[in-house]
Structures are given as structure tokens and as C-alpha cells.
């Protein structure tokens, strides 16, 4: 994790709450971070979670005080045993809360290109496996909002842009 101590020193003392309890009443969003990892043929590395019926990209929830890029690297290591260099931010996507989940900010980072023969060790406590597939081939195994988000991530890779979305719908121009 990054050390921000010099930045904290430059910013000075933390702000004090002028009205007690205001900060505690503010909304608290969940933040998630994932890596779009591809093979040389352009297929995407998907994980098969054991806690939901859809494919996803490697990643997970950002812990308190953890930068999203560091969370991405940590989650990929925990889930797949891979040590990747997290690349640039491709997409920031807000998703509404549904079922047991609160609304989230989803960060998708470029996870680079990985040789499909690389050793991948899925974490048995979270995953039943992994799968290489094109986005089109995986479509029926993805939530539509995740499919839209990953379409945008592929657009971001090809255009060099970082895209802003809500529920997988583009808000900023590509």
C-alpha cells in the first residue's frame, strides 16, 4: 500500500466536525476494484465465483484506507495467485444497490496481457475456477451491467480513454 504520510503532513491537521454526528450520517458506498486481464488472442480471464451465479473479472472489495489500484493487485493475488502490475484505470462505473448489496463504485484497471499457460491457482474459498473467453462468448454468463462495463473497458483499451459510466452506461465520451 502507498505511504501517504508526507501528503498528510502537507495537508495539516485533520478537519474537526463542526456539527457532531454529521460525518457518521453520511452515505457510505462500497468500492470494488477489478482487473481486465487478457491473453495474446484478446480473450478475457474470468473468475467463476462460488457465491453468485455469474462470471466476473478478478477483483473485489477495496478495504478501508486502501487505494483501489492496490486493492486490485491484492485481490488478483488472493483470488488467482497472480502477481500482476496493475495498469491504467479504464472505467469508473457506479452501480445501484440491489438485494443485499449497497451501491458501489466499480473501478476496472488494465490487468495486462497474460500467457494462458501461466500458473493460475483459484482460491477455493471464493472461486470454483476460472475461464478464458471473449466477451461475446461469455455474454450469457455475465450480468448485463457487467457485460456493458467490460465492453466499455475494451473500448478504453483501444481508445486510450478512461471512461465514466453508471450501471454500465457510458456518461463520458469515448
Mean pLDDT equals: 92
> What fraction of residues sit in β-strands?
25-35%
- By helix and strand content, what is the structural category? alpha/beta
Identify low-pLDDT runs. none
Give the radius of gyration.
17 Å
Largest sheet composition: 6 strands, mixed
Give the overall form: globular
Helix and strand succession?
HHEEEHEEEHHEE
Count of DSSP-assigned helices? 5
Could you tell me the number of beta strands?
A: 8
Percentage of helical residues?
25-40%
Gap from first CA to last CA: 31 Å
The side-by-side strand order for the widest beta sheet comes to 3-1-5-4-7-8
Keywords:
174 residues; alpha/beta; six-stranded mixed beta sheet; two-stranded antiparallel ribbon; 5 helices; 8 strands; globular
What topology emerges from the helices and strands here?
Layout: H1 5-11, H2 22-25, E1 30-38, E2 44-49, E3 59-61, H3 68-80, E4 89-95, E5 104-113, E6 127-133, H4 135-138, H5 144-159, E7 163-166, E8 169-170
Parallel strand pairs: 1-5, 4-7
Antiparallel strand pairs: 1-3, 2-6, 4-5, 7-8
Amino acid at each position: 500500500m502507498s505511504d501517504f504520510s508526507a501528503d498528510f503532513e502537507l495537508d495539516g491537521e485533520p478537519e474537526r466536525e463542526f456539527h457532531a454526528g454529521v460525518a457518521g450520517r453520511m452515505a457510505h458506498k462500497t468500492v470494488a476494484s477489478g482487473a481486465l486481464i487478457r491473453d495474446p488472442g484478446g480473450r478475457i480471464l474470468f473468475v467463476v465465483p462460488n457465491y453468485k451465479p455469474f462470471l466476473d473479472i478478478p477483483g473485489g472489495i477495496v478495504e478501508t484506507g486502501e487505494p483501489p489500484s492496490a486493492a486490485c493487485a491484492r485481490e488478483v493475488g488472493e483470488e488467482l495467485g497472480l502477481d500482476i502490475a496493475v495498469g491504467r484505470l479504464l472505467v469508473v462505473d457506479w452501480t445501484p444497490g440491489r438485494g443485499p448489496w449497497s451501491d458501489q463504485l466499480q473501478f476496472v484497471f488494465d490487468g495486462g496481457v497474460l500467457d494462458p499457460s501461466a500458473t493460475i491457482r483459484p482460491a477455493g474459498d471464493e472461486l470454483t475456477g476460472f475461464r478464458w473467453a471473449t466477451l461475446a462468448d461469455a455474454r450469457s454468463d455475465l450480468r448485463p451491467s457487467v457485460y456493458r462495463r467490460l465492453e466499455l473497458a475494451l473500448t478504453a483499451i483501444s481508445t486510450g480513454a478512461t471512461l465514466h459510466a453508471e450501471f454500465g452506461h457510458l456518461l463520458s465520451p469515448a
